[in-house]
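Private note to self, pasted from the team thread so I don't lose it. Backbone tokens:
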């Protein structure tokens, strides 16, 4: 009760005493005095009952007072601590407790700056947001307190995101390198399976797929000269190369060891027309199906295994549109011919 209300109640008590004295006097004088005092008493009661509203309104006009203390504890109806405002060596802190008196929210400081920590009712960490030597970081945990996701800055001050599996291994990493953004995808064994990023020297897009053995399976990218899709076999051995360049597209097949091209299907560098080139395991051409350089028509060349330059058999169409055939010796001298 406010001071003003106490004063009003005191006045009411005084009036009640006077009213009692009046009632003790002769009745002919008591009636008017009783009615007057009764009216006054009723008015005072109304003032007392409505007093809190104008008292509160008056209090709103007062200046807000600072509360200065070293520790502030907020309790529930049973007197149990629910919120604590305090400080430590790093600065101020706020702690929120659950019904089991366990910290579930902590807002405080460390040597890097402000931190926010959320805990489950089992006292295991759920989320930590704060700083480290590289910048800001946010760690997300599972119900057992194991880190499952990172979001933060790396040592070169670039952002990154990492997701982890139950074995505490990265399964997805998204970040940046010298060429641009990148995404790495890992198997549950922690080995990389896929890479999506930017080619060398900030070039075109690049995709690399990797087998469980850690060796390449696919390489898709481009450079100034061509766009290519390279396919690898077991143990990362080169098997196919599909490439599109200025002269057209072609597909090359490699030997089992991936060292030499044995078959090429594509477009001629000279005419841009289709060709088929068959090579030995050493990479030397022994058969060619394509077009004459002069554009007169089709051409078939057959070479010996040891001489990929001088053809032994030539079948084609000459400049006059006439078909011809030639058989040559090791000195490239024509021994037989027909038209």
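Design output:
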């Amino acid at each position: 009760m406010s001071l003003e209300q106490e004063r009003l109640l005191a006045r009411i008590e005084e009036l009640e005493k006077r009213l009692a004295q009046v009632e003790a006097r002769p009745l002919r004088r008591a009636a008017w005095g009783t009615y007057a005092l009764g009216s006054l008493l009723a008015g005072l009661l109304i003032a007392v009952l409505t007093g809190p509203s104008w008292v509160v309104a008056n209090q709103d006009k007062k200046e807000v007072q600072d509360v200065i203390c070293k520790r502030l504890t907020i309790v529930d109806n049973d007197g149990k601590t629910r919120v604590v405002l305090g400080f430590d060596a790093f600065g101020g802190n706020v702690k929120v407790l659950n019904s089991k008196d366990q910290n579930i929210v902590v807002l405080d400081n460390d040597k890097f700056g402000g931190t926010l920590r959320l805990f489950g009712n089992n006292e295991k960490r759920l989320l930590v947001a704060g700083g480290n030597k590289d910048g800001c970081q946010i760690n997300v945990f599972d119900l057992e307190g194991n880190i499952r996701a990172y979001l933060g800055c790396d040592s070169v001050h670039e952002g990154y995101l990492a997701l982890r599996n139950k074995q505490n291994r990265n399964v997805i990493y998204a970040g940046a390198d010298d060429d641009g953004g990148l995404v790495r995808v890992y198997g549950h064994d922690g080995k990389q399976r896929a890479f999506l990023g930017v080619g060398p020297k900030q070039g075109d897009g690049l995709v690399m797929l990797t087998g469980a053995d850690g060796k390449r399976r696919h390489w898709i990218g481009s450079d100034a000269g061509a766009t290519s899709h390279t396919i690898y076999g077991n143990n990362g051995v080169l098997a196919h190369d599909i490439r599109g360049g200025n002269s057209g597209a072609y597909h090359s097949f490699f030997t089992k060891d991936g060292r030499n091209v044995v078959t090429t299907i594509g477009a001629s560098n000279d005419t841009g027309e289709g060709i088929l080139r068959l090579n030995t395991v050493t990479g030397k051409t022994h058969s060619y199906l394509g077009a004459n350089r002069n554009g007169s028509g089709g051409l078939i060349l057959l070479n010996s295994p040891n001489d990929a330059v001088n053809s032994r058999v030539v079948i084609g169409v000459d400049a006059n549109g006439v078909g011809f055939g030639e058989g040559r010796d090791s000195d490239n001298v024509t021994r037989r011919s027909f038209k």
